[in-house]
Amino acid sequence: MTKTLDQAIDEIVADIGRLEAEIRDRKKTVNTLCSVAGREAMFVLDAAEITVPTQFRPDQFYGQALATAVRTILEARKQQNLGAATVKEIFEALTGGGYQFNTKNDEVAIASLRNSLSKNTVTFHKLPNGRFGLLSWYPNAKPVKASAANNGSSVEEGGEENTSTAETTAEA
């Protein structure tokens, strides 16, 4: 039951993020129209609202390494004051941005993503609530030793896990 509640919460939080993005876009549009009409802007927008994309281009992560794409997503979330993300939120941002998983289906891809994030302890940090952030955000966090985190599975150079290896691990 907790899993379904967590999924419902994650979906609602994702919806809120999308709605907030739409509101920011509309505020920017109104301010632009006011400027064209010679009127004063109606909305004051933070620097983060102006400079950080609220969604990613559909091809933004195509062909990128997994860790690079996830780092981009997490950095954008931090600039939007959203912070750490669930695996599902990261997965949706990745696939929405054109990242291709080498897996049979989304469930296997999500398991592969979770494994990759958990094993790349040099870059990512799993919080007690299950969300992931960048290790650099938590200077007092004790990093997990790489040998314990990897426990013998295949991680390519640069902390990139081979998703085809993760697929077989996730299916087993």
Tag the structure with descriptive keywords.
single chain, about 170 residues, two-stranded antiparallel ribbon, 4 strands, elongated, disordered C terminus
Layout of strands and helices, then pairs:
Layout: H1 2-36, H2 47-51, H3 66-79, H4 87-96, H5 106-119, E1 124-126, E2 132-134, H6 146-150, E3 155-156, E4 160-161, H7 163-171
Antiparallel strand pairs: 1-2, 3-4
Helix pairs in contact: 5-7
Describe what this molecule looks like in 3D.
The chain is mainly α and 172 residues long. The chain has 2 domains: 1-55; 56-172. It contains 7 helices and 4 strands. Strand 3 (155-156) and strand 4 form a beta hairpin. Helix 5 crosses helix 7 (163-171). It is elongated, with a radius of gyration of 18 Å.
Short description:
With 172 residues, the protein is mainly α. It contains 7 helices and 4 strands. The two termini are 24 Å apart.
Distance from first to last alpha carbon: 24 Å
Shape: elongated
Q: Low-confidence spans: pLDDT under 50, at least 5 residues?
A: 47-53, 146-172
Structural class, please? Answer: mainly alpha
- Sheet with most strands: 2 strands, antiparallel
Let me know the average pLDDT.
Answer: 78
Number of helices: 7
